[in-house]
Write a structure and sequence with these properties.
Order of helices and strands: HEEEHEEEEHEHHEEEHEHE
Shape: globular
Oligomer: single chain
Structural class: alpha+beta
Helix content: 25-40%
Strand content: 25-35%
């Protein structure tokens, strides 16, 4: 949740609490970036999200931790399960897993953030313009929201994002991506380890992430273990009639 709140701030978006949930509007034209966090059977919160995002013309997502028995929301089938995984945060691990030829650094300028966006778009198969809303000074200025660049021969080939949650002593790992031609070289593991290491150095004792099915073996090999599942429903074409 902290990641999405930070992303909303960085994109000049908004978020607010509902009676039984939270809504996040980043303004990015992708279902994953505009969300309502609530129980899957909370019809009131979901209806409010449908009406709001319908009026905004934005695709959106329901994010729920339960009940798992709900498979369909407003006629949309649940997305495949993406497990939540956790492990201890260790400050010294980065040096042990650094991939050969990869230099991992933190984005410090708007130009750095643009490089992050270009690599992330290539890694995830997005159009770069989808993520360009994060290319502003707010992203660079937010100390708890760090973007990482993995360079090989001067080119950014891997990225990751870290969000620290001091009150929970947790570092969240997000946006791990590697360009297709640079995969299977340990780069994703390396940028992930850098996020964990920096988080631990800042006081985090736990690292958490949400894994894609393809990423599960990588993270399991890094000591992550499943601790639960988010249940997701995507509404790619906002429709005011759903309100």
């Amino acid at each position: 949740m902290s990641f999405w709140l930070h992303l909303a701030r960085c994109t000049s978006g908004t978020y607010w609490k509902l009676p039984r949930g939270v809504m996040v509007d980043t303004g990015i034209d992708g279902a994953a970036y505009n969300q309502v966090h609530c129980r899957a059977d909370d019809e009131e919160s979901i209806a409010e999200a449908a009406g709001y995002f319908g009026k905004r013309g934005l695709p959106w997502r329901v994010v729920s931790s339960g009940p798992a028995s709900v498979t369909t929301v407003r006629g949309v089938e649940r997305e495949p399960l993406y497990p939540i995984m956790s492990r201890d945060a260790v400050a010294s691990e980065d040096a042990a897993v650094r991939a050969d030829g990869l230099v991992v650094e933190v984005a410090r300028t708007v130009d750095d953030v643009q490089e992050f966006v270009d690599c992330a778009a290539d890694s995830f198969g997005y159009e770069p313009k989808l993520l360009e809303a994060i290319c502003g000074p707010e992203t660079v200025a937010d100390e708890r929201f760090q973007l990482y660049l993995g360079r090989s021969e001067g080119r950014v080939v891997a990225v990751a994002a870290g969000v620290s949650v001091p009150k929970d002593r947790t570092i969240g790992v997000y946006f791990v991506g590697v360009r297709p031609e640079s995969r299977n070289r340990g780069f994703g593991r390396s940028v992930t380890a850098r996020v964990i290491g920096d988080g631990a150095a800042g006081g985090a004792v736990t690292a958490v992430l949400q894994a894609t099915p393809a990423g599960v073996p990588v993270y399991t090999g890094m000591g992550f273990a499943p601790v639960g599942d988010y249940l997701l429903w995507d509404f790619p074409h906002a429709d005011p009639s759903h309100a």
